[in-house]
Amino acid sequence: MNDSIPNTHFSSRSQFTTFISKKMHQSNSFHGEKNQQPQKDASGSSLRSVHTKRSNINLFLVCVFFTSSLILFLDACHPPSEAWVLSNLERTRLWDWTAAAIVVVFTILQAVLYYLPIGRVAEGKMGCHDKRLKYSLNGLHAFVVSAVLLMGLWHCGMVRGSSVSSRVLPLVSAGLAMSTLLSLWLYLRPGSAHYSQQPYSGNTGSFLQEFALGKEIDPRVGRIDMKQFAMVRIGFIGWAMMDLSYVLTAIETNGSLSLSFLLVVTFQLIYILDFLIDEDSVLPTKEFTEESVGFLMILGEYIWIPIFSSLPIYFLLHRPNHIDFLSAIPILLLFGIGFLFYYLSNEQKSGFRKNPNNPAYAHLKVIESPSGENLMVSGWFGWVRHPNYLGDILMMFAWCLPCGFTSLVPYLPVIQCINLLRQRANEIEASCQEKHGEAWHEYCRRVPYKVLPYIY
Prior knowledge:
Blueprint: H1 8-28, H2 42-75, H3 97-113, E1 120-126, E2 132-137, H4 139-155, H5 162-165, H6 168-188, H7 207-213, E3 220-221, E4 224-225, H8 226-254, H9 259-277, H10 286-290, H11 295-308, H12 311-318, H13 325-354, E5 366-367, E6 375-376, H14 387-398, H15 412-436, H16 438-446
Antiparallel strand pairs: 1-2, 3-4, 5-6
Helix pairs in contact: 1-2, 1-11, 1-15, 2-6, 2-11, 3-6, 3-8, 4-8, 6-11, 8-9, 8-11, 9-12, 9-13, 13-14, 14-15, 15-16
């Protein structure tokens, strides 16, 4: 099998915390050497202290930049004729108790829905006491209940879409506050699951690093796995709920949805639903099995995934871009092609991994590896080395195109996606090189392009 990451939804969005974790590890390495014994002399201790302080400063700057940059992106979605919201800090609402209540109620609702007695229960990695951890896979059901509840309250006139869309900046602040509280609770509570064994987190002696990167890999509250709860329920369902709130706001304002608005919403909801239907695909990923749960991960799920990912829809809400049906056809085709690339290549990879002797894969050419696992050199993975990543990029680009070309802001999510998937592809290939040796060299010779044929 060519790729160790079964689902690019999860990999692309969680790459931020992985990247930060590695930077902290590099900063903590004394002279860049791994597993070096602590220096006992005064100069060695002093230098190590300087590295720790530098790591703490880096983490603090990341946390500040992480939130402030998102606020600037949201502000840039408003028409150029409007004054920048942040230009008048006295009138800018960065905190709102209603927004805080929305975040708290949403969190409680998802915690309650986690206990829905429907959906599969899957076994994941090996946990404490040599028992496999179990996960409730009812994310799709939780989303349906959440969406129906929102629509029902809106239909009855009890809530309005603008109650959310007009409070996006306070929602960022409320998400920051909730992330801080949850992270502090995870830091202070007695460990009951696996502590991180990574050299950049867990027992580092630095509060800021342990708080930001996390101490535990698999913290649980009752049946709720906090990592799955944050990454799937808060992140992806929160993203869908933001999209639906923008839809309701557009209907309240204009009475209907423009074609460009409808395209972006439809594409994103298809993307989200595909992930929720295949929720167990996150369980074997590196981020899920190895990364600890800290402030940066939780913050990303509360504000970056729901709000940054829905940036194109927020942009169209404030700066409408009208397109005709003929212009929509190539955009529809682009999304459809991207979805097929993504879905079919992942299906082929997953099926081949589970049972390489299946007659359905008898036509595939393979390269034998010393690791005992064969490398596919035909089919989707004989075309490019990461066809699923190409599909991901095409889908995201398709839901940015209806925004037009008057601003770069709605294209920021796809730019981020390209950069993160590029990093992920390099990481995977380095791992495959180490694992498969000469077999991987031969595979790269026969399939020379990583993502885009004849270009990259």
